[in-house]
Request: fold
Amino acid sequence: MKVELICTGEEVLSGQIIDSNAAWFANTLMNEGLELQRKTTVGDRMEDLISIFRERSQQADVILVNGGLGPTSDDLSAQAAAKAMGVELVEDAGWREHLESWYVKRGRKMPESNYKQCLLPKEAVLVDNPVGSAPGFRIKLNQAWLFFTPGVPSEFKRMVEEQFLPFINESFGQTEPTRLQKLVTIGYGESTIADQLNKLSIPEGITLGYRPSAPHVEIKVFARGDNAIAAMPAYVEQVKSILGTALVTDSFPSIAEAVHTLLQASGKTLSIAESCTGGMLTSQLVEFPGSSDYLLQGLVTYANDAKEKILGVSHATLEEHGAVSLETAIEMATGARASLDSDFALSTTGIAGPDGGTEEKPVGLVLIALCDRTTCWVQAIKLANRNRSLVRVMSCAVALDMLRRRLLDETPIVDYPFIPRMEDQIITLD
Amino acid sequence: MKVELICTGEEVLSGQIIDSNAAWFANTLMNEGLELQRKTTVGDRMEDLISIFRERSQQADVILVNGGLGPTSDDLSAQAAAKAMGVELVEDAGWREHLESWYVKRGRKMPESNYKQCLLPKEAVLVDNPVGSAPGFRIKLNQAWLFFTPGVPSEFKRMVEEQFLPFINESFGQTEPTRLQKLVTIGYGESTIADQLNKLSIPEGITLGYRPSAPHVEIKVFARGDNAIAAMPAYVEQVKSILGTALVTDSFPSIAEAVHTLLQASGKTLSIAESCTGGMLTSQLVEFPGSSDYLLQGLVTYANDAKEKILGVSHATLEEHGAVSLETAIEMATGARASLDSDFALSTTGIAGPDGGTEEKPVGLVLIALCDRTTCWVQAIKLANRNRSLVRVMSCAVALDMLRRRLLDETPIVDYPFIPRMEDQIITLD
Reply:
């Protein structure tokens, strides 16, 4: 079965809107064991729409069309579909009634422009939209089914999940059973992981995908068919053993979410002291509802005065070792922990660049400390050849991974691929 | 002139990589007064590549092809181009020499796989790549020029700017003079701004574009031709007067960068105390190199204990008014400012949701305070119908805008469209 996607709209074509529906759709197809063959984006011109519908419907079996179902004059998908088929637009009385009663319930009169959304090509099959005013519809043109969906992401996604996927499963036969396992890594680049994993012989019916999204590269192991599904656990174990410490979670979409969930479950509390990561570490946890259960404070102490006054780092330590030092990282973490007597504290201090590096302390040098009530683990890593933003992102990932390992009773400091460690210490606190 | 884009690669088609090159390219074209007609994405299959090159070259005048020039076996663009033309691949001796000497200089031998990158379709014109190993090239096929570029964004962008744009300007005649003015807004949604601005009569040769990127909607006013350029200043003034307080900068890509630049120029210092924004406000400024010049500290005081201990918010205030109150916001700001005697301080406290709201203090209620040595401005805004992330993003934007206006000696608290203000106070500090 050849599946294609047609995205419509000037704002998508001109790059004013990043085409996130397309990426989501391709991913969703992949999770179902289906492959997208081609994606075409066109603007809002009637002749472009008609010609692309005619052209692609001679090649593909199923075409999902996204966008152009709104109430305004530049929403032309239904009209273009009718013209491509050589039929008229006719009003769908059921949808009109549905829309009118929606407005009546809210004590409003339906705007004139919404009537346009009740017009579908003759012989089109209406596809319900439970969350918006634009109905979807499907038509048969040449050899293809064209399935029209609205551009609003929430409406689009529901229609794909609840109607498009069941429709193609019904029309093109039940696809084979499939299974997907995601592995989230740090340290490796996409091509380096691929080189490593290509050394494994891959069972038939299993495919690998990579999705880089700093600080992670997510690896998708996808199995199609009963044999492949049976072979999957052993294969995934082999993959994991190659990944080693680079694997930071196989159960969550990100390391931050893994830490959030583990911390929430543990009932323990956390304080954070940041310098070079500048609030990013704290902000990554605050992103999750419920983070206030465990996160007591996140103190971004950029100035030395702030490190002394807020965290109680000693003046002598700053004088003697500097702000970017193992000693300062330790005192930042222990100071942040002690201030509200939290169970854990994390600290970061380093040189994010692009300026401020020296021979002894180059750009990309970052100190990261984790402490609980009895022990402090601290390490110096060197994030060379990364820009300011990536130095901060990777530093947060390593800090979170130290805490993740501690929460799992593993050793918090490990060797990651491509993140050289310059120094480390484990200090017993009294 | 009809310009099309063809993106190649399974990872782009399958949504594993968001197609940022395409958006950048469409934007860059628009800045030059050119329009992208169609964008097609295909995978790495040889027959798909050949057929799309043949097909689109019968319709377009210029086609930019992105991706597939790397050294590995799934990089097929050059080979597919040769097959589409019906010619052989031949080695470009100059590029081979260039690559070999690059490796020699670094004391390394060129890997076998790189030789593939020296093979171009016969009669192709090589396009220099000053920053990578894959040369670009262009070929004439049917009625179109196909211009092949590497997928690596930094290489792609340089090639477009330094070679593609000059090439089409030369080949298709100097385009008319153009001018672009960007206006960055907060508060309005894209379609609401469009509705507002559509009421203005727009001078011939001027077009408007919108790029939503939370918390901003960026408006692009684009003029093509001398008459339009002459009419632009007056038109932009009309647009600005409609935007009113929604316009937060016409000189910077974001409000955070505007504040960063103004603060750095002012020589003044800033402390930040955050609750619901959870480090996002601090992090947005730390993103800019040199922010350590003015940013002394960013204190994320999530727990009430932290507000008392770190910021000196009084226990009585928290007891009487609660953590989400004008009074607490004021004490957070004045406490953060006083602790290191910075020139300014900002504070945020609110209910980001999805839980934790009450009738009196609903989800989306956020208190924001700005203080200097003599005055504190505080306001309560209500960010209804926005998710947790957007509540935080919009709160940061309003906080930064208060400081931006203060730095420009404007009044810090203003009425924004679609950001209702529940309460505000101006307090003279003693």
